[in-house]
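Here is one chain, start to finish.
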Amino acid sequence: MSITVNALERKNQGKGASRRLRKEEKVPGIIYGGTNAPQMISLNIHEITHLLEDENTFTSVLDLMVGKSKESVVLKDLQRHPSKNTVIHADFLRVDAKHALITMTPLHFIGMDENEALRLGNMLNQFVVSVEISCLPQDLPHGINVDVTNLAIGDHLTLTNLVLPKGVVITSLQHEDVEAHDQTVCSVSEPKVIVEEEEESLESGDSEAEGEEGQSDEGSEDSKDGDDKE
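Its structure:
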C-alpha cells in the first residue's frame, strides 16, 4: 500500500515566509534530486504529523502530490522545534525506479523472548540500531531483522552476519577492506552488578567512623589534660 503526501507549491522563501506559513499551520519543505530543479512546497501540519506516526513513512517510497503532479520521493530529513518537537521543515529526495538510492533503515531485533540466555536475566547489548543501505526503490525495506534467538552469553553478531533482503546492500561493507568496517551490532553478556561502588561506600563509611572515633578520643585526652592543669 502506497503512502500519499499532499503538498502545495510555494513561491516565497526565507525566515519571514516560513514563519507566516507556520502561523497558518503549514510546514515549509523542499523536493530535490534527480534531473529537475529543487521545488519549494508547503504541507499541512496536521497531515504530516499524522503520517509521521506511522514508522513506515520513514522507510517507504512516498507518492508526493503537488497539486495534480505526483513525485516519487523518500523522506530525507526532518527539522523539529527544539522544545515543542513539532515539525518545522521537511526535505524530500526524488527517486528513480532505475537508480539505486542510499538511505538509512532501522534494525529490528527479533527473537528476544525466545532467547534462553536473555530469559535467564542476561543482557542484549545493542550497539547499532540503524544502518545506511543502497538499493533500488522497489527493494526498499521497512527495516532489517536481526535474529538473536540462538545467541548465548559471549556471542555477538556483526554487520556481515545480517541477513539482508534481496537487492539490499550495506554501504559501509562495499569498501575493499570489509573487516575494517564490519561493526559489532549486538552481543549477549551477563548483567553488570555494581559491587565495587558499594564496597567503596562501605570502606568510606568505616574510615569516616574511625576518624570520628579518633577525634573523639583526642578530645577526651585534651579535656583530661586541661583538667589536670587546672
